[in-house]
Amino acid sequence: MRISCKKYSRRFFCALAIIGGLSPLASASTFTVTTTADSGPGSLRQAILNANANPGADTILFGIGTGAQTIAPLSELPALSDPVILNAQSQTGFNGVPLIRIDGINAGDSEGLRIDASQTTVQGLIITRFARDGIAIISGSGNFVRGCYLGTDGISALGNDTGIFIDSTTSSTIGGSLTNDFNVISGNASDGIYIGASASNISLFGNRVGLNAAGTAAIANLGSGIRTLAANTKIGSTQPAQHNFFSGNGGDGIYVDSTTGVQIIGNYIGVNVAGTAAIANGGSGIVDDLGVGTSIGDTTSGGANVISGNGDNGIVLIGVQGSQILANIIGIAANGSQALPNTNYGIRAISGSFVNIGASSAGTGNLISGNGRSGIILEAVTSNFVIASNNIGSNAAGTATLPNGEDGIVVYGQNISVGNSLAGNVISGNSGSGISIDAPAQNISVLRNMIGLNTAGTASLGNQGYGIRAVGGGGIVIGQPGSGNTISGNKRGVNLEAAVTAAKVQSNVIGLSANQSAAIGNNENGIGIQGANNQIGGTAANTGNVIAANSYYGISLYGPGATGNHIEGNSIGTNAASTGIFPNQFGIVIYGANGNFIGGTAAGAGNVIANNSNNGIYLWFGAQNRFLGNRIYANQRLGIDLDPQGPLPNDTLDVDHGPNEGQNYPVVTLATQLANAVSVQGQLSSLRNANFRIEYFLSATCDITGMGQAEQFLGSSNVLTDVNGIAAISASLPSNPVSGFITTTATSADGNTSEFSPCIAIGPASAGEFNIATPVQAYEDVALFKVAIVRSHGLSGIASVKFNTADGTATAPADYASVIQTLTFAAGESIKIVNIPIVLDNQVEGTEHFGLVLSQPTGGAKLGANSAVDAALYDHDPGYPFYSVTDASVSAPDVGQVQTSITIKLSAPTTHTIVLNYQTADGAAKAGADYVALSGQVTFLAGETSKVVPITVLADAQNQIEKTFYLQIVGGTGNVIAYDSEGQITITASDRIFKNGFE
């Protein structure tokens, strides 16, 4: 501003002017516009010319009659080239709504007003229908545009090309904090506001961009609400009167383009001025394209942006560096409790690095909920993002679900932290998974998050998919000591799919409340594993997971890709202190997986697997799965069960095939208390000349079936079988129990672990007792019901027991064949099987029952508590047939190949289509050398019960011994129940020796 010497001491200021080489300062003048004419005295054009000609901070006022007036220039108005205050709010009748309109309908290719000066203010104008910019600020500094309507009269679209164009200027302000300072910048043909790269330090306060004057409906700028290329642009502030509203625009609300230091604070983007309803921008709420150090949101009260209701994403990041997104509301109304979805993602990061979405301290997190797709997606070219302290999928309080339409967070990037050692996120209530990780993701850490729960970790707000689903990627860490996640209340807990290897899952609570005091189970699995070499828990302190109260499996290992996984130090079915009873349905289930380690030989490797409603470990099929050093007890069915369910007798030389190759268990014949030790005697009958690890366990009670439990791991020994497959067991184990039971397992050198042996009471030799092994569940679809009779507690001498069936609601011979047998057990013999034929009829009977009874024990043996039990006979359900796979045998060909086949059967005709996937698996016979590897699927249409799979066997010069391989069912679709998932193909020895002349 120029200063008149008349106002101050002439001596000082005029001397200053002379010293500075300045001309004498002119007086400020006021010029009043009194006519709507294009030119001449009293016209706006003449007032601008007069102000430009008079050096100093002049004022232009308006007094064109009263009320609303329109000036329609016939050509472009002169630029404002000298400081001036152009105040149209001076028009008589002004009451908050601009009355003076400058309309460019007749002005040709021109701008509305051009500011080419400093310290200039344009206030209270309506500027419409100019072919170029409504207002252009192209030089100077400290300019203001306040209370103007640009491109609209506040009700209708009367667009300029751009509402406000700013370049080559600094420290200018658009809008303000007083009642009549806000601009309405709407209806323009391109952007509402465009700020060029030569500008800097531009501030925007209190504007309505893309809306009507009331802020209740869209008057779209067809481009972005604002596009800035200028450094240090400040858009909004924490003061309510300085919040901007960017809604209803045809493009994005805010577009940050290749600049630095932009601050976007306290704005409403995509919603009305109350923040209660969507007024969508056609694109995204905010796009940060190559921005450096952009700040979106602020932790100070009033600093949150509401970014909701937009036609694409809430926020898009492209090539950003060092930006932060803090304390915003994205996809939700301003009140934090009502969904106003952005159509796609809440935050979409296409590329960029070193970005914080939330931070570690309180109040920094964003509310990212209610969006049409996922809350956050980090695409492949993102790195070094930290996501912390956010609520994703719930309301602001974290007490109710406001789901994102897909996942909470999707990660494809590298070096990403979802939560950190100081703060996690609440990721709950989403329609898909809480977190999804997929290739090419690398080095992903998921720490301290509450996934599927409320903020307090006390109640379910479940994600409808997985808590965490890792589909691909590497270097995945889910929890670590002191920074574990709580993953509960979801449809599924954690899933590591086939492409995921070497992931670490440690220190998490999966299925309980955060304090481990209440069951909040995931509806299916706690942890599912299809990949290889993953670490679940660990041997170091506090690395184990708590996996409890999940509706199906605590942990499942599924398919041949699930190999080399280590499951160590976890609590499965109980809390970390082993004081709570929180059953999963099964503790661990293995289906077709090979070569895994459940527990181990190192200190701390053993898991606690207790209280589960079914088996502790159930191995459906698969081999070389080691179960070592675990505490397995108080499960409702067998601690370790190799399919089929229920204990099976050992076989001579252990030649049977099945899960873990049907490894025989040791037989303990005597357990004697010594001073500070327990002496255990017995034997293992298994393969000839083979090494085995024998593990010993102590429990206060025996399983009701008579099979052993493993409350305490006592130790191990190694044995070598002789040519007859026999190895004596003799061990002295440090322990000093006053009573209890001993049980054992055997693990072969190649890693096949047996079931637990029948338990033996510590004390003198005895004939033991007889029990019926439960469960006793028969199915009409399975022709032969096998019942195991177990002799346990003692195995001394010959003993016998009578077995008989007894009619109940199921009767013989209509439903089953009556059986009466006397079973004689040799000394050391522990299990016999009784076969009961079952009748498959066509009657709808529901579940029926009949009795199984033991009586008349001899040889000093007793009847145990489970000597009379109820057998449930489940009716055939045509909607759920059972499938089975037959075996086959073929002689090895002398040359070329020979065909055989396997039949896959259903127990009864189907009522729907069933598809079963199959593949071959090596035994002693190897694919490529002995047979042709095969995989595929069979389809059973309604009414079909049998499908034949051709098998090709190859000639082999070494094929002079019997070899086997297998065909396995590895999945499928349609309602069907697995009964026998594996068929064995035996290649018998070639007879070529006779055909070569020795016959």
Automatic annotation (TrEMBL):
This is Calx-beta domain-containing protein. It comes from the Bacteria. The keyword Transport applies. One of its GO terms (biological process) is cell communication. Residues 758-855, 869-970 form the Calx-beta domain. Keywords: Calcium, Ion transport, Repeat, Signal, Transport. Transmembrane segments: none annotated. Pfam families: Calx-beta (PF03160).
